[in-house]
Write a structure and sequence with these properties.
By secondary structure, the protein is α/β, with parallel strands linked by helices. It has 11 helices and 5 strands. The longest helix has 20 residues. It is globular.
Length: about 260
């Protein structure tokens, strides 16, 4: 199983799921380049360049796993959240047959559906270089994510764990680059990285679990319904009292539901 987080999180996001699944499955949860405890890439990137860099690094990592480590090259389960969805599904389309199952948590892999509107603070950072610079200095987005991305509230130690990789200003650059790469309309160059999956695509034929925090301010229920429309075969669980960090708010129930899906229950 390969777990791909998003922005501004890191592999710490998966700790509850990993605890539940690791007895039955080989679980691998890397930090995306520039986030978490991974090395910071040289030189700024945004838009297509930012995403292409992620895909190139994921290719290298997977070739290391299948070559040097000796793991199988097919029959992987891909677990994605936030940017991990766009990156992971674009990568899976480039490597048909590698991914056998998908677990999707509050993410996107197609142009924003009609009726969706990006939260204003993300639009400010995305569209203004000066506001983006201020956001990096103040570590604004990670600090907001650990407060506004949950319903139940995180403990102080949990908040500090999420914020730890971004304590240094220079380590926050990729956080802002991801925000500035958020696609605008249907014709945004980012969408050209892959064909948005639909009911006819090879992705749509995969067994799929969708677990959704219904109180997410970014990936709202409108986005979930577009997933359901495109993938009517998916097993869907809606967590009413969970927000963007659904692995936090729905930990326990989500873990059981994902495990049952993987074991065919």
């Amino acid at each position: 199983m390969l777990f791909l987080h998003g922005n501004p999180t890191w592999s710490y996001l998966w700790r509850s799921l990993l605890s539940t699944l690791s007895a039955d499955f080989r679980c691998i949860a890397p930090d995306l380049p520039g986030l978490g405890l991974s090395p910071r890439p040289a030189g700024p990137q945004r838009g297509v360049g930012c995403l292409e860099r992620q895909l190139i690094c994921l290719d290298g990592f997977f070739h290391h796993l299948t070559g040097s480590v000796g793991l199988p090259a097919r029959r992987w389960t891909l677990v994605v959240h936030d940017w991990g969805g766009l990156i992971g599904i674009a990568w899976a389309q480039r490597h048909p047959g590698v991914v056998a199952r998908l677990v999707v948590l509050n993410s996107i892999a197609f142009p924003w559906p009609a009726g969706h509107r990006l939260p204003v603070h993300l639009r400010w950072i995305r569209d203004s270089a000066s506001i983006a610079a201020l956001a990096q200095v103040g570590n604004v987005f990670p600090r907001a994510a650990v407060r506004l991305g949950v319903v139940r509230g995180l403990g102080e130690a949990e908040r500090m764990a999420y914020l730890l990789p971004f304590a240094d200003r220079q380590n926050r650059r990729t956080v802002v680059e991801f925000i500035r790469s958020i696609p605008r309309g249907d014709d945004d160059p980012v969408w050209r990285l892959f064909k948005a999956p639909d009911t006819e695509s090879q992705i749509a034929r995969l067994p799929m679990f969708i677990g959704w925090g219904m109180r997410d301010r970014l990936f709202t229920p409108v986005v979930l319904e577009e997933w359901v429309r495109r993938f009517p075969q998916a097993r869907v669980h809606r967590y009413r009292d969970a927000a963007h960090l659904v692995t936090e708010d729905a930990a326990g129930a989500l873990d059981r539901h994902v495990r049952a899906f993987l074991l065919g229950a």
